[in-house]
């Protein structure tokens, strides 16, 4: 039998090491940070401590090849690492595997030339730089990048760029951006209108207008005004008109990396739901003994199980260099929605306590909400999934290929 749901011993060993690292290093540092939430010195000191320890423990940069100082894990192995790390707030950052840097590293690895790798990728891998990815604009639907209005015009050996972006995560404090702008007027395919540029920061013409406040507070998702920004031709990433392809190549694995982290969060919520149900007494019995609560636990457990299977299968397809688009779309949609449902049920079981900020659940709920529309809105994924299902049926008289192409 070729189907094996266990990890090889070396991946199991990494998973155990990650768990131990979170317990011994990350959680105590997080506690120190939470005790002094307004003290920047405590924050910086503990972040440095976590990142130094990750290097000492051999857990630095799990997703990158060894030649860049990483662990060289594939996507299946990364699922085990990311799901564990995301059970804590700073876990992914401690390992230098946080969004958006993780996705940007993959992008640079595959699209940057040697000079660009030296200047941007290596310092990012070493933790000496931070980055952001600037695509979405307030004026047009982010779901359709062919509408992007930020425009880059060639001027000698430079490009001159004007435009407006928002929700650019990590922009404040980033050393460079991967910026998507329109360069082509009449391409053969609509998707080839955009190109990607590496923008150094700070740069004249790149202005951070504000940190857009969200329903879960301000988290460095910035609005950016771009005025006559000059970028040398050498900073074009991946060639003219490649912006869409580059974005898609980045988004597949990056979406799945989000799913891995969301699984970690969903498991934390379900653990909390069960623990509360086992200790809260009402109307003659514990909540855990009531059928209405058991249904919530059962539904959440089944969903978590499906999330894990879908993510592992999509990761397996990426590792095998097979077409993974459908599996990643289905996983992204399902995990995002499951996370929202599971966190909401955990709040329900906690009652007023769940609604308070005394537990992490309220914060998890507001964070989980964006999962359903960012990195491809639910409806866009459903549209693509339906398209591929219809195509598969039209071609083979069966939907089997679109439903994971599994041997069933
Ligand atoms: C926390 C957070 C972090 C982010 N970080 C970044 C970042 O670092 N860089 C960046 O560039 N962007 C970032 N974004 C932006 C994000 O990528 C966009 O929100 C996303 O692409 C959707 O674009 P939009 O918000 O313009 O929504 P729109 O495209 O306007 O879509 C709104 C709604 O319209 C519906 N819709 C859209 N298309 C269809 C369709 N074809 N069929 C049916 N319904 C449809 C969906 O319900 C969708 O939710 C971030 C957003 C958030 C919330």
What's the structural blueprint in terms of helices and strands?
Blueprint (H helix, E strand, L loop, with lengths): L8 H27 L4 H17 L18 H11 L5 H4 L6 H11 L2 H12 L5 E4 L16 E5 L2 E12 L6 E7 L11 E7 L5 E6 L9 E12 L3 E2 L5 H37 L1 E2 L2 E2 L4 H29 L5 H26 L1 H4 L5 H9 L8 H19 L12
Parallel strand pairs: 1-4
Antiparallel strand pairs: 2-3, 3-7, 4-5, 5-8, 6-7, 9-10
Helix pairs in contact: 1-2, 1-3, 3-7, 5-6, 5-7, 7-8, 7-9, 8-9, 9-11, 9-12
Distance separating the two termini: 14 Å
**What would you give as the CATH superfamily of the largest domain?**
Butyryl-CoA Dehydrogenase, subunit A, domain 3
SS elements, strand count: 10
Radius of gyration: 22 Å
- Distinct helical segment count: 12
Bound molecules: flavin-adenine dinucleotide
Query: How many separate domains?
Result: 3
Index terms:
single chain; alpha+beta; Butyryl-Coa Dehydrogenase, subunit A, domain 1; Butyryl-CoA Dehydrogenase, subunit A, domain 2; Butyryl-CoA Dehydrogenase, subunit A, domain 3; four-stranded mixed beta sheet; 14% strand; globular; binds flavin-adenine dinucleotide
